[in-house]
Amino acid sequence: MNEVGLLDLVLEEEFTRDPNLVFLATNSPASLRRRFGSDRVRICPISEQAMTGMAVGAAMSGLRPIVDLNRASFAMLVMDQLVNHAGRMHYLSGGQYRVPMIVTSATRGRQQLGPQNEQCPYGIFMQTPGLAVVVPGSLRDACALLRGATRWPGPVLYFVAPELNRQRGLSAALAAGPLPFGEAAHLRHGDAATIVAIGGAVKVAADAADALAADGVHCDVLDPRTLVPLDTAALAASVRRTGRLVFVDDGPRSGAPAQILSRLLDEPGVAVAVGGRIGFVCQPDVPVPSSPPLEEAMWPTEGRIRAEVQRVLGEPE
Amino acid sequence: MTMAVAPARSAGPAAPDPVAMFTSMVLIRVFEERMMELRTAGEVIGPVHPYVGQEAIAVGVCAAMAPADFLVSHYRGHGHAIARGVDLDALTAELFGRAGGLCGGKAAALISDRRTNLLMSSGIVGAGVPVAAGAAMAAQVRGEPAVSVAFIGDGALGSGVVHETLTIAAVQRLPLVLVCEHNGYQAGNRTEEVYPEVSLLRLAEAHRVRAVGVDGNDVTAVAAAARDAVEFARGGGGATFIEAQTYLTRFHLQFERPSPEVRPADEMAAWRARDPIDTARQSSPLRDRLSDADVETIWEQARERVEHAVETARSCAWPAPEDAATHVWAEES
């Protein structure tokens, strides 16, 4: 969790509360290891598959392991452990076994990590049943959702944007209690359009909505906070009211935004209400290049969000 | 670190009863032969991976385990389940895809059984090894004496995660026993076609894991090796890799028809001559303790037991279509 250091303090509190929490990583927080010992806080070789598979077995045997993968790109290494095992064992065993475990990783930052290690793969895990997918949009939610994850009865994939580290209000964030999953945050209110923003893109989306409001265009801004389970009801209610929908995400357009859109279109009245008035401000479906001028094209910016909202507003009813 | 199998110790758990082990091997053999018939007949669902010829390994290893120990199996796992004491009726109903099956019909052969601490029977080669290591870690963290046992085939050493886990098991001294049933085949390939050498002991040793070779068709030898490894793990010594030499006497799998795999005739004859059930029957102490009539009774009782399980499975209802969507998510407690 070295990308967002405040989360280590959350873990220390949760480790005190729940003796079944254990931590597996190539790089475990020194203070956590000092306080809780090398049995519960393990340093492992660079063996992500073994760590994640061990977490499955430990979770099935009564512990609640946390595996820190460091980078979200490393989720690609452990697809078998996550998809075929963590997400399937409750089902495969006919409900006999639970797999309460958490896999944490950092998504994209302005770090020029390039095509391999700058990724937001959470959309992939919206089509792998059994796995909860958590993508906090603020530092406070990052803390509160991590606490929620330590109480969830099944496996949780927790993706945090390094950008959240820039936010203030550390003590308030640390003091936030556990957040339940499946409840979107309704950050701005307006009838002009619905902006659904995810993870590291939530703040820039809210800033863009504020700028639009100053021009008299008031938008709803919703942060799903957990992609699985998804607060479809809250998102659908907003879209039915506004009739316009813009997705803002650091990740690829065909990832979480496309997944959320398909779920919303299944909700009664949404397809008719929204018509074709749908916009995307996302990473295009290309890898993230390293050079800053190239990387810049991959980020949702306030200007791009405002332009996309205006474009959707210009579409006929 | 390769070592000969230690003789049975006077300390520790009681030595397993040879008659009980023989009876268990016969039950597995009868069950497997019947499941293949019933797969051909279309009553058993999914693929059947027969365990015929390897019975001594499941029975010898499970005889060394305590009830609180963890077990991880794989798709060729009927023998492991029976040796561990999984309810035969529920197992059979699961293989029939019925609602009353062990996992409600969701698993077929890929069963879990919480009652006997059978965590999983993975359909992915090698994938159960870190899971077993995780259960071993759980025992270690809680200070409980449980040991975790995983069955794998020789093919699993081709999987990277197995090597990763061996390294971690060694350095973290996990109470783990990996039982490698070296049956010479990896799906359609012979092991010498795809591995640099046929002995697998040095692969485990390279990870600094204690490695023990044993005749996998000799249930007494397997039980002794397993007992030694389980006691070593329970005493805090760490992991053991047991390579049990055996032979895939039937085939990798069957659906409607048995796989048409051919075995070299002389090789097959040599292994048939060392059939684990015949070997146990002809060795002491069974040679003296069981008459031919006793042995025939054991076979007859096994056939009756299996037929009872088959009739029970036939009488079980199919799952309701809406059950397809249950148990995707665990309930919040």
From TrEMBL, chain A:
Q: Does the keyword Oxidoreductase apply?
A: yes
Organism domain of life = Bacteria
Key words of the record: Oxidoreductase, Pyruvate, Thiamine pyrophosphate
Domain (Transketolase-like pyrimidine-binding): residue spans on this chain: 1-167
Which stretches are transmembrane? none
Q: What cofactors does the UniProt entry give for this protein?
A: thiamine diphosphate
**InterPro entries, per database record:** THDP-binding (IPR029061), Transketo_C/PFOR_II (IPR009014), Transketolase-like_Pyr-bd (IPR005475), Transketolase_C (IPR033248)
PANTHER family xref list: PYRUVATE DEHYDROGENASE E1 COMPONENT BETA SUBUNIT, PYRUVATE DEHYDROGENASE E1 COMPONENT SUBUNIT BETA
Q: What is this protein called?
A: Pyruvate dehydrogenase E1 component subunit beta
Organism of derivation: Micromonospora lutea
Lineage here is: Bacteria, Bacillati, Actinomycetota, Actinomycetes, Micromonosporales
UniProtKB/TrEMBL annotation, chain B:
Q: Which cofactor does it need?
A: thiamine diphosphate
An example of a Pfam family matching this protein is: E1_dh
Which ranges carry the Dehydrogenase E1 component domain?
Answer: 25-321
Print the keywords alphabetically: Oxidoreductase, Thiamine pyrophosphate
Coiled coil ranges: none
**Source superkingdom:** Bacteria
InterPro entries per UniProt: DH_E1 (IPR001017), PDH_E1_Alpha_Subunit (IPR050642), THDP-binding (IPR029061)
**Name this protein carries in UniProt:** Acetoin:2,6-dichlorophenolindophenol oxidoreductase subunit alpha
Q: Which organism is it from?
A: Micromonospora lutea
PANTHER family associated with the record = PYRUVATE DEHYDROGENASE E1 COMPONENT SUBUNIT ALPHA, PYRUVATE DEHYDROGENASE E1 COMPONENT, ALPHA SUBUNIT BACTERIAL AND ORGANELLAR
